[in-house]
Please model this.
Amino acid sequence: MNETDMSLWLVIFISILATYMWRFLGIVIASHMHPDGALSRWFACVAYAVLAGLVARMIILPEGALADAPLIDKLIALGIGFVVFFLVKRNTSAGTAAAFLSFAAITLWRYMLQA
Model:
């Protein structure tokens, strides 16, 4: 093995160690937390806030193929997703599926109009 191969293996090993170290620490910390405690609720709120931020960014400042879709189409799909989410007792899977399917239908409808 030459020096480049050793450096590559070292980078891979450090990357694996860094990834699994945080996972292990997460398991240790989570095993000592009460599921209904204040800290668990705080983590859930932070996770929802990050998710909301990512969704907002995907809608307002998208990249790739999503950037070509009109904003109104994305907002309509988002609205449909919210309505379904609340109609089915705050089921995120149903809301997400409804938003995705409605966006796909709107996009297909626009494509058929242009053809």
